[in-house]
Write the structure tokens for this entry.
Amino acid sequence: FFLKQAKATLTVFVTFLLIFMLNYYFDFTVYDVDGGRDLDIFDINEGILGKKQKKKPQKKMWPKTIPYYMQDDLEINAKGVILKAFEQYRLKTCIDFKPWSGEANYISVFKGDGCFSSVGNRHVGKQRLSIGTNCDHIATIEHEFLHALGFWHEQSRADRDDYVEIMWDRITEGKGHNFNTYDDTTSSSLGVPYDYSSMMHYSKTAFKNGMEPTIVTKIPAFSDIIGQRMEFSDSDLLKLNRLYNCTQGSTFLDSCDFERENICGMIQGQGDQADWDRVTTATGGPDTDYSNMGKCTGSGYFMHFSTGRANTGDKALLESRLLYPKRGYQCLQFFYYNSAGPSDTLKVYVREYDKANPNGSLRLIKTIEGDIFGNLTSLWQLHHVSLDAKMKFRVVFEGTKVEAGPPSGGQSLDDINVSETTCPEFIWRVKNFSHVMENTPINTPIFSPLFTSKEGYTFQMMLYPSGREGYQGQLSAYAHLVAREGDTGQIWPCPWKQITMMLMDQHPHIQKRMSNQRSITTDPNMKAAGSDEFFWDDPRKVGVEVTDTDGSKYFLGPGYGTAAYLTHLRAKSRDFIKGGDAIFLLTMEGKSTRYTRCILILGSNSDKTTLALASSLSVLAVMLVVTVVSVICVKKKYKKRTNNNNNNAVILNSHAS
């Protein structure tokens, strides 16, 4: 026992010693898109709200499909984020958007002095909505379009004073009108209780004239909840769907966490030799479901095919209810736990129905052996499978016991979602994110693996779990371009590729997730601060040389992102961290590519460090000696090279794993 404790202690010590040395000797070049400030809408609009008043809505609403036009003056990054916001509306509501083609009334999106919109359909033909500088956050854009759809700020409700107190003496002079309330005929609650978590609510510091809050919640626990700019809250969606009589999201197809006995209309397939059982635990694993992680008495179900009880060659088929596609492409997302034999397989099919095949025709989409890396796993793993069904279909899971294996165990499924969206492509798992946030020193980054887009650009995410200097209690996130010697085929400076960094809310139902994301776009004309070099030029020219943990070398370009990505308080809310895990979805997309997404998963409670630098004391000792010697040598080399070229350095890159 004491030897194990000593190993664990030494592992943590060496890990943070290495991180300290890396950050002591080397500075990473990063640029904050918003000047390092966590800007809310009222910060961005400071000085102009007196001129840009939202007008009272007309009685008529917009049609469910809203024509829009993006003006040429919009920033490129804003255009991409607007399209992402539209996708969230389509997924979670019946509201859709289409490019304007001559309709009498439409929304014209332009780059004005801030973020603002009229309330409701004004019936003026061209109705303007501004997405100005620093307004290119997805929640800010969704917020402004909610105004256009007919919604006022949450704290403008007639019953506002029952839930919050406005501290009028703390409000900046001339800004008091922003805290007006409106009667039920103007700002209807639509029968929904006051929502502290609404994306339409001001934060507690809105328009403050000093250090004290301007809005005090009457339930103190909600003081730091108001003002969230992540995603629609459940009540935001409830009100919007009530107002527009929505019954289902435009691109949503199905979701199932197996909590109900009808298993969401799924059926056992015909012609198989075994069944998938609805259980709360399985011999050989898993011990709990993924939806609730065993926390809720009387719930926590998942589907399990017991390969331990099955005969060699037995198959078990689980089929979704009938689904009716519109777009011709779908994303199947599910959590999979594999405690079966190493050769047992899980196959994903679609069963498609047409006149020639009234009983359906099976088409294989993907075979999964082991976990996402082909290994057996003792964890629930997130999987994505891209589908391309163009006719009525079912999703079919086929578990097969290929050969004799362990007497217990099997294959388990939970939290299945199907939507007409594009799928992520890469998954990376790092462990115990809560521990990482609490124990990583400030100004100390961890790095994702390298990911390559379909257009051949390689990128990497740098995350400061405890924030950068001056941003304690924040997650700070930056995107870097990467290049290796011998890379060819890319255009430099990298032209107009949008990189999105999303922290996934792991709620079982895809429509109820409030994920947090930020996007940046590579502007080929952008210059590095105080330099004539292009910021997004070839990392071999403007970056630093990095020695990876496997000994390979690559060049890391400067980082672009935000020091105020998300507060620790919000990161610990909802299901951002689940079972110790946090999941980041990253995309890199351009004009001629679909989404390139990767997943960064942080955390398992069983591990006390995320930087797995060694597996034994002997390896740790050797690495410590080698690293100390290497850093001393690198420091000398770095100083020498810095005199000649400030953009070159050799560093040991530490990955979380």
